[in-house]
Amino acid sequence: MEKQARFGKMTSWSFGQERLRYHSMKNPLLFISITLFVALLIYYQKEVGDSDDHSNGPPRPIAAWVLEASRLTKGTISSTVGNWPITLHAQPQTIKAPVDALYFGGGLTGGSVLSQKNKPTPAPKEAISLLSWVRLDAGARKGGIIGRIEDNRYGAGGTYLGYDETHWIFGLTPGGPGIGEGRLQILRSAKPMEKGKWSLVVATYDGKEMRLFVNGELAAESRAALGPINWYRTDRWSIGQFSDENEKVPMIGALREVEIYDKALTQETIRTRFISQLARVQTESVGSPLHFVIAPYLQFPDTHSFRVCMETSQPVTATIEYGPEAPFNLKTTSKGLETFHEIPIGGLQPGSMGYYRVICTGPAGEHLETTILPWQTAPIDSVPFSFAIIGDTQGNAPATGKVANIMKELRPHFALHLGDVVNEGHDKRQWVEELFRPSQELFGQVPLFPTMGNHEKNHPNYYKYFSLPSPEYRYSYTWGDAAFFVLDSNKPMARGTEQYNWLDDALGKSQARWKFCYHHHPVYSSDNNDFGDTFAGKRSLYGDPKLRPLAPLYEKHKVDMVFCGHVHLYERTHPIKNGKLDETGGVVYVTSGGGGGSLENFTPTPEWFKAANRVDYHTTFVNIRNNTLELRAFDKEGILFDQYLKTK
Ligand SMILES: [Fe+2]
Ligand SMILES: [Fe+2]
C-alpha cells in the first residue's frame, strides 16, 4: 500500500511537469520556485514522513486502547484509535493509583478483539510495535499482555508481548504465509521484570531485528527473525491473557494503555513516551485487588461427587455454578468469607461429565470469576480411561509447566502425583509458584490424586491444599474397573505396621480388574547414588530397602503396576515376581520422578530388571481398556520415548 501511494504521487508530479514547462518559458523564476517546492515536498514525504521522527509528531498507532473503568461499558472497552472494541471475558477489578487501570485477577478475565465482518483485525506485515503500560503481580508459564498468536507443535504464527515466570517476552513468527512453516522466535528481557511495579514495555520489529524495551531502555535484541510477519492461523488479538487454540493463561496484574503500530518505534520515541509518563513508576503502586493466589482446581472425584479448591488474596464467598452444560442451573455457595475454599459438589451420576465456573465475591462487592472449566465423575462400568503421572515437581516452574502442559494435551481423565510436590513443604511460595501456577490449566480440568514425598515433611500445607479422604496420607479410590492404593512411604510400611495391614486388607477386598499402588520411594531403582554410590565404587541396593519387603505383598494380591518417584528420572522394570523375571505374574515398577526436580542418573551397569530408562523431564501416560493396559512415556516436548503393553 505504501509503495503504491508513493508511486501515485510521483506520477502526478510527472504529469505536472508538462504544464510547468509551458509556464517556465514565460517566467523562469516561477519555474525554479515551483521546482524547489516540489523537490522539498518529495524529500519530506520520503525522508521525514516515513521515519519515526518527532519533527512530524510521534507515530500514530493503528489500534489503541486505554483500559480504565470510565471506558468500560457492558463488558466492552472501545478503542481510542481504530474501531476495535475489546470484549472482556468477565468483569475486571479496577485500580486507581498511580493511574486508573483495569486489573485482571487470574481467572481468565482478559479480553479479545473480535474480527469484524469483512475486516480482519490488524496484521501488519513488514514491521510492528506492541506497546503497553503494565503492572504484573505474578509470572506465568506462558503469559500474554497483548498478542495475536498461535504457538502449537504443528506450527506457529503471529506475535505477542508477554512474560514468563520471571522475565518479559516478545514472541514473533517471521517467514512466509505457508501453512505450518512458522517458527516462533522468542526474545527474553535480560533483566527480570519487577513485579508489582508499573512498566512501559514495548516490543518492536522492523523486518530485521526484534527489540524489547522496558521503561525506555533496550532490554533485549535479536536478529533471529527476518522478513515479513507470518500470521498463520491467527485472527484475533487477545489482551490480558495468553490465548491461542489450545492454551489459555490468565494474567494477574493491571493494564493501562495497549497499542499496536505498523512500524518499529525508535528508542527515542519510546524514551520520550516513558519520560512523559514517568510519574507512574515514581509513585508507589497501590496493593493488589482481589485475585486468585491459587486458581480453582479439581480434587477427589468419586462416582457421585467432586471437590473444587482455590485460594484468593482476600476473603471471599465462593460460588460454583455447574451442570451438564452452560448456562448452569445448579450452584453451591461457600458458607462464609474465606481465602481458602474447598467446596464439595455432590448428587451426580457415575461416569457423568459437565462444566463449572467459579464466582468469588468480596465483602465490598469485589468480583472475581473464572472461565468455564470441565468436571467429571468416576465411572462404575468398565469403560476405557486414561491417567497421566507426574512426580517431583521441585523448584523448577518452567519444567513443571512444560510437563503439565503435555499432560493437559494428552487429555487424561485424572492425574497422579508421586510426591515431592514442592521442595520445602512449609514454603507457601513454592506451593503457589512452583506447583499450582505452572500447572493451573491442568489442575483446573484434570483432578490430581497425590502422594506424600519426603520434601513435604508431612507439613500441614499438604493436608490443606489436597482434599483427600481421611487420614489423607494414605487412601484409595476407584475408576471403572481399576483400583488405586496410595501410601505414605515416609511412614513405616514394614509387615505389621498400620499402613501394611491397611494395604493388605484393602488389596484383599478389592474386586477390581486392575490394581495400582503408588508411593514416593522406589521398590526397585537403578539410580546411581540414592541407594549406594555406584560411580564411587559402592554397590547399589537397587531400590529402597525399607520398601522392598512390600514386593511379596504386591505379588500376593496381583498388583499390576507400582508407581514411585523420589529418583528424578524415568525407569520401567520388567515384570518381577520372587525377585525374578515373571512375564505373566510379575509386578511392573515404574519410577516417574521427572516433574521438575534436578535430574539424576543411572548406575553405570544396569541390573537385570531394567526394561527402559530415560533422564529427562517427562510424564507417564496409562490407557486402560477392558483387559488391555497401554503405558507410554513422553518427554517435556511431547516426544514418545517408552511404550509398554499388558493384556490379561
Ligand atoms: Fe524428589
Ligand atoms: Fe524425594
Short description:
The protein is an alpha+beta fold. It folds into four domains: 2-47, no CATH class; 63-282, Jelly Rolls (Sandwich), CATH 2.60.120.200; 292-376, Sandwich (Immunoglobulin-like); 385-523 and 543-596 and 612-647, Purple Acid Phosphatase, chain A, domain 2 (4-Layer Sandwich), CATH 3.60.21.10.
Structural notes for this entry:
Helix 5 links the parallel strand 27 and strand 28. Helix content is 17%, strand content 35%. The chain is built from ten helices and 41 strands. The protein is globular, with a radius of gyration of 30 Å. By secondary structure, the chain is α+β, with helices and mostly antiparallel strands. It has four domains: 46 residues, no CATH class; 220 residues, Jelly Rolls, CATH 2.60.120.200; 85 residues, Sandwich (Immunoglobulin-like); 229 residues, 4-Layer Sandwich (Purple Acid Phosphatase, chain A, domain 2). The N terminus is likely disordered. Helix 1 packs antiparallel against helix 2. The strands form seven sheets. Strands 2-3-4-7-16-9-10-11-12 form a nine-stranded antiparallel sheet, with no helix packed on it. It binds fe (ii) ion (2 copies). The site of one fe (ii) ion has 8 residues, from loops.
